[in-house]
Amino acid sequence: xxxxxxxxxxGGSSGVENDRGNGANPARERTSAIAxxxxxxxxxxDIFDQxxxxxxxxxxxxxxxxxxxxxERQWIKTTRCRQMDAAPLTDSFCIHAxxxxxxxxxEDARDDPRFATNRFVVEAPHIRFYAGAPLYAGASxxxxxxxxxxxxxxxxxxxxxxxxxxxxxxxxxxxxxQREAMMDGLTGAWxxxxxxxxxxxxxxxxxxxxxxxxxxxxxxxxxxxxxxEFGHAAGDEVLIEFARLARDNLRPEDWFFRMGGEEFAAxxxxxxxxxxxxxxxxxxxxxxxxxxxxxxxxVTFSSGITDHRPRxxxxxxxxxxxxxxxxxxxxxxxxxxxxxxxxxxxGQERIDA
Length: 353
Hints:
Structural class: alpha+beta
Order of helices and strands: EEHHEEEHEHEEHEHEHHEEHEEEHEE
Radius of gyration: 23 Å
Strand order of the largest sheet: 9-11-12-10-15-16-17
Distance between the termini: 31 Å
Number of strands: 17
CATH class of the largest domain: Alpha Beta
Number of domains: 2
């Protein structure tokens, strides 16, 4: 599960704080950095398939793949080598590649005591040779590797090491571009396009493991009037500050999006509408206490909340992103019609601030 809540907003973008060398936990650092990329653990990416095919061809090996490594498992982001997806790090060759800046090479896994009994050596895909170059989030945090493998022992010369390293740099840049394409440049929140991906992934995950989620639509009250009275620069500062407070109040596993204009959304993982309401009302209280004041007046918001439950938890098989959004929007409409600065859960009455 990935999310943007541990990233640092700076200059209208977002990045992960880099405290390597200052006692940081590498696994936690990787997990936080991966969260800031906006790639769900169920996704593969076409660009990684392309890079891995080039790597396999250039290095003349049958297997090539991209893996990201969180604190517990490796996630294969290519359509090939899927049998290694979600493997624990103890079975991962790539975890060794992230520990150094150079290409990591195993010429014959059966002769290497670190890998002789490895699951992927003894079983399919029966790796004998492996080489991996680290992938980076931003400029300095290693989060995974571009790996190539063969079922026969072999060596890797300097020229081919350079090719693998260069392709890994290309894949790293693509990760940064992926993140930038999914983020709102002003507030650092994820954008509407990312919402569609996250909701789809959470629906699939919920069907697989029996987990629900809640979605809250949040709309800043009378924002057009604020812009007209105080100017767009002041309005932008309000949006930025609201996103910051949301980031402070939501949990690390939750997601926060800017839908456009003054409208935002929060996806609350493993939550009912009632539980999500508690987080939203906590945000409302924090906004009142610490939020911006313009002309002596504070900023408020209205919210509409709904939830999605998989069939195993009593939900419907045909629930979808459009239906979830429609329920949340209808609840938001009732919150605004009922006087604003309040929450309404779909199917329930308004919840006053």
